[in-house]
Design brief:
By secondary structure, this protein is an alpha+beta fold. Helices cover 12% and strands 28% of the residues. It has 2 domains: 22-150; 158-284, Immunoglobulin-like. The strands form 4 sheets. It has a 4-stranded antiparallel sheet with strand order 1-2-5-4. Strands 8-9-13-12 form a 4-stranded antiparallel sheet. A 4-stranded antiparallel sheet has the order 11-10-14-15, with no helix packed on it. It is elongated and about 70 Å long. The protein starts with a helix and ends with a strand.
Amino acid sequence: MKRIIFILFGILTYLGVNGQAAWIEPENPDVTKPVRIYCDISKTTASTADGMKANPDGPYYIWTWKPTEARADSLVNGTGDRPWKSSNDKLVMIKDEAKGTNVWYYEMIPTEFYGVDANAVYAAGISFLVKPKDGGGYGDPDQKTEDFNLTVAPPKLDRGTLYSVPRIMFGDQITSVIYDNPLESKASMKNLGSDEVYMHMIAVIEDTATGVRTNIEPAKFFRVTENAKLKMKKMTDGRFKITMIPNRFFAVPLTHKLISVEITVRKAVWNSAADQTEEKAKLEFGCQ
C-alpha cells in the first residue's frame, strides 16, 4: 500500500497541475531581450472574468502599469477619451493553443516597452491585467481579470547540474546536453550507474511563418526507457551526456525552429519522485 501511495505521489508531482494564471517566459529572463507575458484566463479568479472564461476566442489585451504606465504614446493602455473601453490595438495578445484553450501571451522587450533600464524591471516586476478591447466601466460591468504582479528574477549565473555545450544552442549544430551528477544535491539521485540515467524532454518549436508554437515530446515521462536515444552516456568523471543535432533529434519540420527544451532527468527504474531531479531544466535556443 505504501508503495502505491509513493507512486501516486510521484505521478501527481510530475503531472502537477500548474495553478498559475499568469507567468513570464523565460523564467529568469534577460529583460533586454524578448519575453512573453502569459495569462491562462481559465485559471483566473475574478468574477469580472467570467465572461472571458466563457469566450476562449478573444481577442484579449494586456493592460499594464508597472514598472511604469508612463510609456510612449504608441504603447499607452487605451485610446480616446474612454481608454478603458478602447484598448490599444498594439497591446492585443496572441493565443497559445499549445498551452491551453484560453491561454494568451504578449511578447515584448521589457526595457524597450516600458522605457526603463533592466534594473528597474527586476526591482519593480511587471504588473498587468487582461481584458477585452471594451473593458466595460462608465456604468457598464467591468470585464477583466484580477491584477497580476509578476516578480521578474534575473538570469541565473551558475549553470546548475544540467546544461548544454556550447552554452548557446542552435538547432543545426552539434550540441551536448550534460547532467553533472557529481554536483547533484538530491541524495536519492547521487552516484548513478551507467545504465540508470534517462532524460524526459519536451521541445517547443515555432512555425516561422505564423509564429504558432507547439511541443515535441520524444517519449512520455513514464515511457522514456523505450526510446534508446533518451538514455544518457556516463563519462569517466561521473557526468552524463547526450550529443545530438537538435533539429534531427527532435525531427523538427523545415518550416519550424526550436525555441527551448524542458528536461527532467530520471532513473531508468522510477518508483517515486525521489527517482528524478527536483526541478525541470529549461534550455533556450539562439536565434536561427
